[in-house]
Amino acid sequence: MPSSAPTPLPLATLAQELTRFRATRPLVHVLTNEVVQEITANVLLAAGAAPAMIVAQEEVPAFAAIAGAVLINVGTLHSVRLAAMEQAVNAANAAGVPWTLDPVAVGALKYRTDFCRELIRQKPAAIRGNASEIMALAGAGMGGRGVDSTSGSDAALDAARFLAHETGAIVAVTGETDYITDGKTTLATPWGHPIMTQVVGTGCALSALVAAFTAGARNRLDAVASACAMAGMAGQHAQKHSQGPGSFKAAFLDALYHIQPDNLAEISA
Ligand SMILES: Nc1ncnc2c1ncn2[C@@H]1O[C@H](COP(=O)(O)OP(=O)(O)O)[C@@H](O)[C@H]1O
Ligand SMILES: Cc1ncsc1CCOP(=O)(O)O
Ligand SMILES: [Mg+2]
């Protein structure tokens, strides 16, 4: 499968995607884990989307069909949640609504690994995970240490390309550099800071942002890369204006709120 070397996401592309995103304020149907509900909703709100955590099987099909995008995050998977997720994916696909998968801790645990392997046959628009998760989902690794990666994103680039090729999804593998690929073309976003790994939910919330950017996207590769760039830039900027994980979280939300198409150079410096 021919694939080219990663190229940086141009700031002009991010500016365009951010303008589109803010103009539409996408409604995001979030099925995620119990740990990150609050940071996920606040990241989406600060960035400019409208989150709704609708989880009952009785409500999921109707809501997935009218949302702009759906997020499936298996961080605290259990049987009732799994059934609701299957219904959300079916309803989203029937209505042409893009859905994104965050394969939290896949590889480490068989139940969620089997479920995610099955789910990726159902045409996800995007998959966002850390390096260990993307390698495990691609069948090229045993998973990380719980929800954390034990590899760098560079090591998962081939697995990300393979997964994109197999599923048709845009695959984002995050870490020091985020790589976003459709299997042929790969974009790189270099922004971020290691402190982001010390605040729970930065990855999960990024996946929700990825889902939000896929809503109404003309170019899904640019859309997913822009979500990664936005989070990375906000994280890098927030670290400079905070003293540790607690104040970082507040500064991160502030930075997501203040990023504009015309201050990208300043925020990303
Ligand atoms: N070493 C790092 N340097 C800079 N940014 C990082 C680093 N590790 C992770 N990030 C950023 O933290 C966010 C969460 O990514 P990651 O830690 O890979 O996901 P997860 O929380 O799912 O394991 C992303 O925005 C990513 O770019
Ligand atoms: C700690 C934890 N345990 C189950 S899900 C979860 C949250 C993981 O969040 P992230 O992948 O964003 O670090
Ligand atoms: Mg994660």
Automatic annotation (TrEMBL):
Keywords from the named record: ATP-binding, Kinase, Magnesium, Metal-binding, Nucleotide-binding, Thiamine biosynthesis, Transferase
Cofactor annotation: Mg(2+)
Domain of life, source organism: Bacteria
Pfam families hit by this protein: HK
Residues bound to substrate: 53, 201
Main enzyme class: transferase
Protein EC: 2.7.1.50
InterPro entries: Hyethyz_kinase, Ribokinase-like
Pathway: Cofactor biosynthesis; thiamine diphosphate biosynthesis; 4-methyl-5-(2-phosphoethyl)-thiazole from 5-(2-hydroxyethyl)-4-methylthiazole: step 1/1
Family recorded in the similarity comment: Belongs to the Thz kinase family.
Protein name: Hydroxyethylthiazole kinase
